Amino acid sequence: MKHEKWEQLRVVDHPLTKHKLSIMRDTQTGPKEFRELLYELTLLLAYEATYCLKTHEVQIETPICRMVGEKIEDKDVAIVPILRAGLGMFEGVLTLLPNASVGYIGLYRDAVTHLPIEYYCKIPVVREKDVFILDPMLATGQSAARAVDMIKRAGGTGERIFFLSIISAPEGIEELISKHPDVNIFTAALDERLNENDYIVPGLGDAGDRLYKTP
Ligand code: URA
């Protein structure tokens, strides 16, 4: 079901996503379990986000008879994690779509301005493809909007761009939708707000640090 305020947003608040996310948020959860949960949550988000993928008919033979089945052309999908925390999600999507192409976008947040600075960009062919951009935290939305700019510059089309995040802040959703109203956003939780350091409240802290145990 679409969100009542933003039609581009889908909050995947399944009992399993709520359960796994509550463990991830907990400060007591260490990096190994955090990585495993991020992978599992991404599987659940990707399951929902891939609902719109087109299938084509294929002739198959079961042990009983011939029939017409349906398959996805997963070669027509591109997965683009935003470094570094997005790396914790791409394995989840790739498990479901093993023939997808993978690219990487490197953005870091300037310590003073909090604006995204681009430091790496390797985008596969995205024209005519469904593109899944991955970042666990949709906070200010600046990096997300920049990543979508980069995908569109490479030939991606908005309606076929999916932004998957585990936790989103309302400010980030507003920012991304204001810059790219054609993008589809899937998240496991819509939190309250950003704090003065642009961290999501209540959030889970710094996703990259929790994944890779950097202080
Ligand atoms: N990035 C994070 O890792 N956490 C936040 O709360 C916001 C941005």
Pairing-aware structural class of the strands and helices?
alpha/beta
Domain module tally: 1
Which outline best applies?
globular
Describe the sheet with the most strands.
9 strands, mixed
Cα-based radius of gyration, to the nearest Å = 17 Å
Question: Which fold name fills CATH's third level, the topology?
Answer: Rossmann fold
Poorly predicted regions: none
Query: pLDDT average, as an integer?
Result: 95
CATH architecture: 3-Layer(aba) Sandwich
The small-molecule ligands in this entry are: uracil
Helical fraction: 25-40%
Give the CA-CA distance, first to last residue: 38 Å
Number of helices: 6
In the CATH scheme, the class would be Alpha Beta
Order of helix and strand elements from N to C terminus: EHHEEEHEEEEEHEHEEEH
What's the structural blueprint in terms of helices and strands?
Elements: E1 9-11, H1 15-25, H2 31-49, E2 55-61, E3 66-72, E4 77-83, H3 87-96, E5 101-102, E6 104-109, E7 116-122, E8 130-134, E9 137-138, H4 142-153, E10 161-168, H5 170-179, E11 184-190, E12 193-194, E13 200-201, H6 207-212
Parallel strand pairs: 1-11, 4-5, 4-6, 4-8, 8-10, 9-10, 10-11
Antiparallel strand pairs: 2-3, 6-7, 12-13
Helix pairs in contact: 1-2, 2-3
The structure holds uracil (URA).
Uracil (URA) binds next to helix 6.
